[in-house]
Amino acid sequence: MTTLLVNIKELIQVRPLDVKKVSGNEMKNLPTIKNAYLLVENDIIIDYGPMEDVPQSFDERIDCTGKMILPTWCDSHTHIVYAGNREQEFVDRINGLTYEEIANNGGGIVNSAKKLQSTSEDDLYNQSAKRLEEIIALGTGAVEIKSGYGLTVDAELKMLRVIKKLKENYNLPIKATFLGAHAFPTEFKNNKEGYIDLIINKMLPKVAEENLAEFVDAFCETGYFSVEDTDKILTAATSYGLTPKVHVNQFTTIGGVQISVKHKALSVDHLEVMNSEDIDALKGSETMPVALPSCSYFLSIPYTPAREIIQAGLPLALATDFNPGSTPSGNMNFVVATACIKMKMTPEEAINAATINGAYAMNLSDTVGSITKGKKANFIVTKEIPSYGFIPYSFGSNLIDQVYINGKKI
After folding, report:
1. Rounded distance, CA 244 to CA 261, Å?
2. Is 299 exposed, middle or buried, given 0-12, 13-18 or 19+ CB atoms closer than 10 A?
3. Rounded Cα–Cα distance for residues 143 and 198 (Å)
4. What are 98-143's pLDDT values in tens digits?
5. pLDDT in tens, 239-276
6. SS3 helix, strand, coil % of the chain, rounded to 5?
7. DSSP per residue over 283-297, as a string?
8. 52, 231, 233, 393: most buried, per Cβ within 10 A?
């Protein structure tokens, strides 16, 4: 089955297969073809170019006059497998409590863990599937999902099995991350070494045995897991073949970036608080910095210093951090807009960060993230818009006309 999309006003993010990520000044460049066609065979992009070279052989022809096409968003940091919600904490923050104060009062991650532990696997799957369908409709065509709201052996495994079931039932790239080191459970409040021992000697072997995750994560932050804790957990996890993707520098800079780079982390995520030593540690590494602007927006905390990161010659990816406590939204369109409005990224930089660099942050560079011959036909068809800069400009509007996953209209 060949599908030919024609009269595309602008075909965005057109790249050769050997481009895995873009860094520094390269992020300002967004290759496009105006008045273009796109040819898809089954689930693969097989050709594209200007309309003057349009193929004459196809099974289905779709007219895209006035519309643009770009790759689906690649959301490399989410927590969408969770139970219930935390809207009361939202109200508490409005009334003056900080994220840290709420956590110290038994809220936050521990609150979500209590709800999840008492939720059946089927119920958890159904709640999570609705969220996954929502983000697909919003243009996300590849996603990473973390555990971390279980905090017991059984509950962490339950989360990862739900992610595995989502992977089996939804035909888009889904990557699973084991985040047992998300917070210390109440019963281990005065025995942190005991919980770390549980992660290393009970959880990790089970995760590996059932092949439930590709990545490992830890919340390396003041009041959560120290640099030493993170080092110990990542050392153990990499012995099971899990690649690190680490929460660092959300509230304080304590050396999380450095220990992540030491362990060859695929990404370091959050980075709201950065100093020159953190930026220097990333130079020359293969680690992708990932910003989560919706989290900054929702918690009213600083935004990742995108300009400093990019001006240092580094790459940057954007993701949602979709979770019940600090970012109850999986809308990558809002993420791209917020990166432009609040982080002073150009539309070109933001689209690069949300597509090709997001794919890199999930080890998916070979299959998604750009309009490339041989990659999956995962793309967004916009409504009629004047330019791709209109996507972040018109931040409150839904500008998506159609989403295609594996060559099929969703």
Report:
1. 9
2. middle
3. 28
4. 877 887 777 778 878 888 898 999 999 999 999 999 999 999 999 9
5. 999 999 999 999 999 999 999 999 999 999 999 999 99
6. 40, 25, 40
7. TTS-PEEEE-HHHHH
8. 233
Which pair of structure tokens corresponds to residue 256? 């999380």
Q: Which pLDDT value is given to residue 86?
A: 83
Q: Quick check: 80 and 127 in contact, CB under 8 A?
A: no
Strand pairing class (73-75; 140-146):
parallel
C-alpha distances in angstroms, 92 versus 88, 100, 111, 194? 6, 12, 14, 31
Say how far apart CA 321 and CA 66 lie, in whole Å.
33
What's the token pair of residue 386? 């004047």
d(CA 10, CA 33): 6
Q: What is the 3-state secondary structure (H, E, C) of 21-87?
A: CCEHHHHHCCCEEEEEEEEEECCEEEEEEEHHHCCCCCCEEEECCCEEEEECEEECCECCCCCCCCH
Res 236 pLDDT > 90: yes
Q: How far is CA 320 from the centre of its chain?
A: 6
Residue 391 phi/psi, 5-degree rounding, is -65, -55
Reading the block at residue 355, the tokens are 């597509």
CA gyration radius, the chain: 21
Tokens standing for residue 331: 């809308």
Angstrom distance (rounded) from CA 195 to CA 289: 28
Distance set, CA 360 to CA 4, 62, 240, 336 (Å): 28, 30, 22, 17
pTM of the predicted structure, to 2 decimals: 0.96
What six digits make up the tokens of 129? 């599937």
Q: Which of 99-103, 147-151, 209-213, 377-381 has the lowest mean pLDDT?
A: 99-103
Give the containing element (helix H, strand E) for 260: helix 256-262
Do residues 128 and 146 make contact, with C-beta atoms less than 8 angstroms apart?
A: no
